[in-house]
Specification:
heterodimer; A: about 200 residues; mainly alpha; B: about 180 residues; 2 domains; about 0% strand
């Protein structure tokens, strides 16, 4: 029964490399190596980010549930991100600015750099500067960074819902978003010439 | 013959839903094999910690550093699966670019702005993302997609904040893109 290895196992390094290759290959193939394509999600001319992102999330979430039903994986053994309320909200908001201004996120900028996008390389350079800045002034916000720790809490627990019901609603919401954005994209493309 | 080959236009992008489902399967396999999912920002943080360990060890090993746990007891911050993963992302991205004829040194920007303006925006956006992903304990991959897959509350909050903020501020930065 999975998970087969722990994250610090040396086999995990080899597997992570293979997973990374698949991850980078798929990001590039879907067009995530273009900042103009990525930024489209904010202006309605290209929703590829939303389409890939949510179809990946629901596939993995539903898949994990089935793996558990079949007895293939012990879900209590896998890593669940800890929720630090204030820090997660602030971090997400700053990343929102970074995305709209920079046109990439770290993973997409890595794969775009690999095919020669100079703007992606500059984004990565900026990213490293940002990380250094965070570390340099860390004592000023260490308390805030560590405050509001709710542990590895799940969304259905936060909402007081049944897990399967939540997942079903999540899938329905994603499909609704796919249909709605396809419609918006068509309208926007008709109005303005595609980039 | 070689020239004709080079002049062929780039291939079309993969269907986004197909790419998404395949990516979902990759995440699923990552959890199955290694207990953890994807991540991109962690490797860069560890890279910074590694350089600091060499250049300013007194800082990174002190209580003042956000990365002290990466270097605790003389540990090598690069000995981590996320570092191998980001190397894979570069290789995978390059392979797809090569196969689909998209390898090209290019600074991509909207025709309405100069290369210089795009370059400055990319650096500033990157820096903000660096700070944001430090607070968020991960970026769109590790704190976002990955956390959504395991239905972690943090993932829904981080993704909601990234895209929510993005939509709120998009109008002010529209000249960069449209």
């Amino acid at each position: 029964m999975g998970p087969l290895f722990t994250a610090s196992d040396e086999w995990s390094f080899v597997i992570a490399l293979v997973i990374g290759i698949a991850f980078g290959y798929l990001l590039e193939s879907a067009g995530f190596s273009s900042s103009r394509k990525l930024a489209g999600v904010f202006y309605g001319y290209d929703f590829v980010v939303l389409q890939v992102f949510f179809s990946a999330a629901i596939t993995a979430a539903v898949g994990l549930l089935f793996f558990e039903y079949f007895g293939w994986i012990d879900l209590s053994a896998i890593w669940v991100n800890r929720f630090y309320t204030g820090s997660a909200i602030l971090g997400g908001a700053i990343m929102g600015f970074g995305f709209v201004i920079g046109g990439f996120c770290p993973g997409t900028s890595a794969c775009a750099s690999a095919i020669g996008k100079i703007d992606a390389m500059l984004f990565l350079g900026g990213f490293i500067i940002g990380v250094v800045i965070f570390d340099a002034f860390y004592p000023f916000y260490e308390k805030f960074y560590k405050s509001g720790n709710q542990g590895p809490i799940k969304i259905y627990e936060s909402l007081g819902m049944n897990r399967e019901v939540f997942l079903l609603l999540f899938v329905v919401f994603a499909i609704f978003a796919f249909v709605a954005t396809a419609y918006i994209q068509q309208r926007v493309s008709q109005k303005s010439k595609k980039y | 013959m070689e020239e004709v080959k080079l002049q062929k236009p780039p291939k079309k992008y993969m269907n986004p839903y197909l790419a998404g489902v395949l990516l979902g399967i990759v995440i699923l396999l990552s959890f199955y094999f290694t207990r953890e999912g994807l991540g991109a920002s962690g490797a860069f943080k560890r890279g910074v910690a590694k350089v600091e360990q060499i250049v300013i060890p007194s800082h990174v090993e002190s209580e003042k550093s956000a990365f002290k746990h990466y270097v605790k007891d003389g540990k090598d911050p690069l000995k981590n699966r996320l570092v191998y993963m980001i190397v894979g992302v570069f290789i995978g991205g390059f392979l797809s670019g090569a196969i689909n004829r998209r390898l090209k040194l290019k600074l991509e920007h909207s025709p309405k702005i100069s290369s210089r303006k795009r370059a400055i925006a990319a650096v500033i956006g990157g820096a903000l993302f660096g700070i944001g992903s430090a607070f968020g304990r991960g970026c769109t991959s590790g704190a976002g997609l990955d956390a959504l897959s395991v239905l972690a509350t943090s993932g829904f909050v981080v993704v909601g904040m990234i895209f929510g903020t993005g939509y709120v501020i998009a109008w002010f930065f529209r000249k960069l893109w449209i």
